Amino acid sequence: MKKLHYENEPSDLPKGLALAYAHGFPLTQKAPLFIEAGAKLSWSHLVKNYRPWADDVVRMDYLDISLPVDLTYRFSLFNDNLRLAPSTGPSFWYNLIARQKISYYGASKDLKTEKINYLARHEAYPAAIFQFGWRVGVAVPHGHLSVGFNFTYDFTPFCEVMCSSYSTKHIGDNLSSTRTLFIGYEF
After folding, report:
1. Whole-angstrom Cα distance, residue 117 to residue 63?
2. Contact at 8 Å (CB) between 25 and 16?
3. Which helix (H) or strand (E) holds 110?
4. Is 30 helix (H, G, I), strand (E, B) or coil?
């Protein structure tokens, strides 16, 4: 799920859910080498206490659609039913939702809420709508079922500058990454 990397602050890994479809196109008749292309709709959600204020709660929601294109090599391990399929390739994605809700107690001890939609063009520091990254993964297909993991790291910043009610801070390496553990069915 989408994880933002902040300067000088540890990042938490959000929880999420994804729905994906990929199709493999064989490159040769002799070797099990494929170009796999598809689409993935991902939703990520994170609730955490904002540092250094322990009473403040930040809720982040992300929804994106990605279009990965992987080069995949499938080779058999012990028999033709159990295979190993490492893959790598570029991934392009479109951010549909990137919002943050900050709840905190003001000076008069009343609960205040601020909402930031990072994709709104009227925000002081809007996020990128389109991003580009690189994927690396491995799958273990067995019969029609497949289990695997992939990691995507972006090359385009999610947002050049992050802004909150407490401070404005330039974040030069404000990139995102996505980790996906998947279970799939092969047709």
Report:
1. 12
2. no
3. none
4. coil
| Calpha distance 39→140 (Å, rounded) | 20
What gap in Å lies between CA 28 and CA 46, rounded to an integer? 43
User: pLDDT per position in the chain (187 positions), as tens?
Assistant: 455 544 444 455 567 888 999 999 999 998 899 999 999 999 888 777 655 555 677 788 889 999 999 999 998 888 777 899 999 999 998 989 988 888 877 777 777 888 888 888 776 667 788 889 999 999 998 888 999 999 988 888 777 654 433 333 433 456 778 888 899 998 8
Alpha-carbon distance of 136 to 159, in angstroms, equals 23
Q: Which two tokens stand for residue 65?
A: 């659609």
Q: How many CA atoms lie within 13 A of 173 on its CB side?
A: 9
Token readout for 53 is 């204020």
Q: Is 78 exposed, middle or buried (0-12, 13-18, 19+ CB in 10 A)?
A: exposed
